[in-house]
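User: Reviewer 2 asked us to show a designed sequence for the structure in our supplementary figure. I'm pasting the structure tokens here. Could you produce the per-position amino acids so we can include them in the response letter?
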């Protein structure tokens, strides 16, 4: 996924960071609402903050596996 910011920066974000976006069709992913703070997909129940993308963080609702 490419995200173009108003200051001219472009972010290349792997869809694997956001499993809810990896599965749907391109048409479903196009149904995004853009706000100053982030991206929202109502039908996919996904919200992504621009600040999180800039920090290199993916889906914060998934707990990463822990070593034993």
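Assistant: Here is a per-position design you can include in the supplement:
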């Amino acid at each position: 996924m490419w995200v173009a910011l108003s200051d001219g920066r472009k972010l290349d974000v792997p869809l694997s960071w956001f499993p809810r976006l990896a599965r749907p069709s391109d048409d479903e992913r196009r149904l995004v609402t853009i706000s100053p703070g982030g991206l929202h997909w109502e039908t996919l129940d996904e919200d992504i903050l621009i600040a999180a993308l800039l920090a290199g963080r993916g889906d914060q609702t998934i707990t990463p596996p822990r070593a034993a």
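For the response letter, you might also mention the following. The CA atoms of residues 37 and 53 lie 11 Å apart. Helices lie at 19-22, 26-29, 50-54.
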